[in-house]
């Protein structure tokens, strides 16, 4: 019985090695291939994941996002100058690729007004997904900006990128709210919803960790730092079938096992953390989740939090 189980597991892992390069690429196919690449990463097959994503990394937003994410992960874990330079070049290309699929002749700040003028079901799904992918790429570039050069200018540049990313997520949440009950049962819409919940949940959770006086000021100018809402969004994202569900899980794990301890915000919910992690440990028993993706998530959110603190204090110093 044990031998059969081991054979099934090997077949599961090796199956991804035989995936041919797709001859055409649409939104659904790109999401499926990106999910395959994520499974490869969770099975510690990074080179195979890169080989799967690279052929379409300049023509597909999800391939660009996935390919750059792996290289950013590598750079954040090694801190090697060569890796950082390679990741930075790749993330710039990914931003360019994602931008090509975004709504033309519209800035991020005008997305909400654009939606209010036309029904959300007329918005192209590609444009909705492009906003999410672009926002995620901005967060990765902000992290690399800090890693590459640790000075105040880098902090300010990174803070601006994070603020832009936050605004994109807010606009996408507006699109999501308008789209509820309007043909929102497709897999691509579920993937979009998972991305929105991950972003909105993460930002609300992180902002809620700021000092109360700073948080009140931020809420006055449009930011949101509701901890319970952030946790609920992440829990919904973790319970979904979106490929970003694992990132929602890891963010919750980060909060329960790292943030609560370091910042002293309260006791982490270890029972929930174990329950969230258990399905993935059963599905990917050989994954080095704490050494790979978990550390990467810690880097991302720690740097973003530092950005916010310095950027906010800078804005207060200049304008108040």
Automatic annotation (TrEMBL):
The keyword Glycoprotein does not apply. Pfam families: Iml2-TPR_39. It comes from the Eukaryota. The chain crosses the membrane at residues 245-264, 293-316. Keywords: Membrane, Repeat, TPR repeat, Transmembrane, Transmembrane helix. This is Tetratricopeptide repeat domain 39B.
């Amino acid at each position: 019985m044990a031998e059969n189980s081991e054979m099934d597991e090997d077949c599961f892992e090796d199956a991804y090695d035989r995936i041919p390069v797709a001859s055409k690429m649409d939104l659904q196919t790109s999401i499926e291939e990106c999910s395959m690449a994520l499974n490869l990463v969770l099975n510690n097959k990074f080179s195979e994941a890169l080989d799967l994503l690279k052929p379409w990394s300049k023509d597909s937003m999800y391939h660009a996002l996935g390919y750059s994410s792996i290289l950013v992960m590598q750079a954040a874990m090694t801190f090697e100058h060569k890796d950082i330079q390679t990741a930075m070049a790749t993330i710039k290309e990914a931003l360019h690729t994602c931008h090509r699929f975004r709504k033309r002749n519209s800035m991020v700040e005008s997305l909400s007004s654009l939606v209010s003028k036309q029904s959300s079901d007329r918005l192209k799904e590609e444009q909705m997904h492009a906003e999410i992918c672009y926002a995620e790429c901005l967060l990765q570039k902000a992290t690399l900006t800090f890693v590459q050069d640790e000075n105040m200018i880098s902090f300010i540049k990174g803070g601006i990128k994070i603020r832009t990313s936050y605004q994109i997520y807010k606009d996408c949440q507006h699109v999501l709210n308008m789209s509820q009950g309007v043909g929102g049962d497709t897999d691509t819409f579920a993937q979009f919803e998972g991305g929105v919940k991950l972003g909105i949940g993460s930002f609300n959770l992180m902002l809620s960790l700021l000092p109360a006086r700073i948080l009140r000021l931020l809420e006055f100018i449009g930011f949101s730092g509701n901890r319970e809402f952030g946790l609920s969004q992440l829990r919904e994202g973790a319970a979904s079938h979106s490929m970003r569900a694992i990132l929602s899980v890891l963010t919750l794990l980060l909060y329960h096992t790292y943030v609560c301890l370091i910042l002293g915000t309260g006791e982490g919910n270890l029972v929930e953390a174990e329950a969230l992690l258990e399905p993935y440990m059963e599905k990917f028993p050989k994954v080095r989740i704490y050494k790979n993706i978990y550390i990467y998530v810690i880097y991302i959110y720690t740097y973003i939090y530092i950005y916010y603190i310095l950027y906010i204090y800078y804005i207060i110093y200049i304008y108040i």
